[in-house]
Amino acid sequence: MQTAAYASYRTITTQTAGPGELLLQLYQAAIKNIGQARLAIEAVNVPDAHKHIVRAQEILLELQRTLDHEQGGDLAPRLDALYGFMRGRLFDANMRKEIGPLDEVQGLLRSLLAAWQIAVRQSAR
């Protein structure tokens, strides 16, 4: 359970972060929730597994919603398709309570996070 101080800290960090930092926070949250879902599946804790998988799906949906298809060039539709694919894999993981699709999506998100971290650092310069 989060303490009130930690919850306040998270609220402030989210409200003061720029768009690039918010994007990174979303990726990190999705990766964390998938990791927690994996642990819950291993512990045969179906309700927690479901909760964390749904949270990761909601984050991916938010990432899809915020894509700028007008200014995103080739990247926006590709990311849109990739996010949709990942949401589908998470759906499969949730329905079957399987770890394989979770690992697949988490790997993709980690790769994307690393690329976005570089892009955010470079744009900050």
Number of strands: 0
In CATH terms, the superfamily is Flagellar protein FliS
Shape: globular
Range of strand content? under 5%
Mean pLDDT across all amino acids: 91
- Gyration radius from CA atoms, angstroms: 15 Å
Largest sheet: none
CATH architecture: Up-down Bundle
- How far apart are the termini? 37 Å
3D structure, described in words:
The protein is mainly alpha-helical and 125 residues long. The N and C termini lie far apart (37 Å). Helix 2 (19-42) runs antiparallel to helix 3 (46-65), helix 2 (19-42) runs antiparallel to helix 5 and helix 3 (46-65) runs antiparallel to helix 4 (75-96). The chain has five helices and no strands. The longest helix is centred in the C-terminal third of the chain and has 25 residues, at 100-124. The chain has a single domain (17-124), classed as Flagellar protein FliS (Four Helix Bundle (Hemerythrin (Met), subunit A), Up-down Bundle). 21% of the residues are buried.
Topology:
Elements: H1 4-16, H2 19-42, H3 46-65, H4 75-96, H5 100-124
Short description:
With 125 residues, the chain is mainly alpha-helical. The protein has one domain (17-124): Flagellar protein FliS (Four Helix Bundle (Hemerythrin (Met), subunit A), Up-down Bundle), CATH 1.20.120.340.
